[in-house]
Amino acid sequence: MGDFFYHYFPNVFDMREEILKSTIDTIYMTFFSGLAGGFLGIVLALLLVATKPDGVLEQAKVHSFLDKFINLFRSIPFVILLSLLTPVTRLIVGKTIGLDAALVPLIIGFAPFFARQIQNALLEVDEGIVEAAKAMGSSPYEIFVHVYLKEGLAAIIRASAVSIISLIGLTTMAGAVGAGGLGTLAVKKGHEGFKDDISIVCTLIILLLVFFTQWVCNSLIKKVSH
Amino acid sequence: MIKLENINVNYHDKQGHILQAVNNVNLHIQKGEIFGIVGYSGAGKSTLVRVINLLQKPQSGKVIVNHQDLMNLNEKQLRATRKKIGMIFQHFNLMNSRTVHGNVLYPLRDAKLTKQEKEQKIQQLLELVGLADKRDMYPSQLSGGQKQRVAIARALANDPEIVLCDEATSALDPKNTQAILKLLKEVNQKLGITMVLITHEMDVVKEICHKVAVMEKGRVIEVGKIVDIFSHPKQSLTQDFIYTASNIELAYQNIFDHPLLANKLQNDCLFELHYIGHNSFNPFISELYRRYQTEVTILYSDIEIIQNQPVGNLIALITSESTPIEKIENYLRQQNISMSRLNALQHENYYLI
Questions:
Q1: Contact B104/A at CB under 8 A
Q2: Which of A157, A179, B39, B242 lies at 20 to 30 Å from B304 by C-alpha?
Q3: B320: helix, coil or strand?
Q4: Among residues 35-94 of chain B, which lie with CB inside 8 Å of chain A?
Q5: For domain B246-352, is the CATH number 3.30.70.260?
Q6: What is the pTM of this model?
Q7: Cβ atoms B172, B94 nearer than 8 A
């Protein structure tokens, strides 16, 4: 066993601490940008659903502006967004390189994508239930909380799983601004340093993270659907 | 209780044309009444019922509920008013993520009751609709009829004075339809709740409504007490609806399909007789023979009790050799029986003979 490991993965053991740190960095970036971008995305999605024609707070102009805004940001490739946002990042974080600097473009890249996913999830909620809630004297706020978010919960979790997995993908590109993480490790050390075993291990760890996310979300969906 | 005055609702379709969903409608619904609104789909009845709780805001007109013009209320006042107007829907519209208990609790969310009082209220409501044992089930575990019962309990939670029913039985099978109608009737009688019931089925109207309005293309074309509408419909659409709720159509089919009868029709005249009230029980047929030697052959006859009034329909062959038919018609009119000779063009089957 030991021989096999040393033969095929000669560098993994030596670099174990770096691999561990990169894994933690990836989780850190995913978690915090997921949290902040997730919050922003849900707010954007609720605004989109509320302001749509026949929505609870119908506002055609706001709706069309938000819709175009989200489409615009979703269309910019993430690697380019990273460099485009440098001035904004400097303004917010004070520096343009490193883990925290990567969070700004990650959040801005993730939020519109997530908003679109959540919007679709919320549109699955039966309009009849929304109408019934209105007939029972619910305020727009109550309709958001008690109808859209509660009735759409399973669909929201499903959309979140897809989004988090794609967010893990985005974090691997954050190496372009020196953020570290498993993506950077695989490219800089594995690929450019001719250490293929490092690339393979990085891939395996990312796969594990993806499977774990999927598993957690599936269990949650099972719990909330009736 | 409910007064609708000159209500107009317009929609813009995608080409920018204006569609008049509700066209200058005036309705007056009394307290404690079950008021039916019938019409084919697209007649504007669903839009009209939504005007009553302003889920649909009319372009012009007055909506007066309990002496209060709802168009003058602000959002907050309107929401408070809506809590006193229950509504049930064709597709139930229950919240799927809540149990039966949770669904009935939702309208009580900011009622001024203690937790215990709320629980007691929910228990009473579930007993009223016969679902006390399904308290912790989710809507997906219930049948259509049971879901509508939950919806009724939910609609009654805030002790409303009015319940609006939008095609409440249209998604149910005949047995459940009967059971739900019985429950609605019970609710109306026990709690004195005013009900507005939208339907395309005249059977439903006949079963429980006191009054009915017939709608076509956004207009109310006929309104009246249910017995009057059923015995003396003025509009041909109303007539159509009534036929769908009776067996007359089927009776004609049988009469015209029968070879022996079809033969007889060549010599004799076919008449339709309608009568209401207690003269239904007078032996007018033997009287006709005694006075005018007129022979009446009954081909179809039934008496229905609508709102405690007998309403009779009769299809008969009338052979009268010595007396002109006008005289017979006159006599029957005196007895409050309307008689109409069957027009050959009115029934395509007759025409074929």
A1: no
A2: B39
A3: coil
A4: 53, 55, 75, 79-83, 85, 87, 89, 91, 93-94
A5: yes
A6: 0.84
A7: no
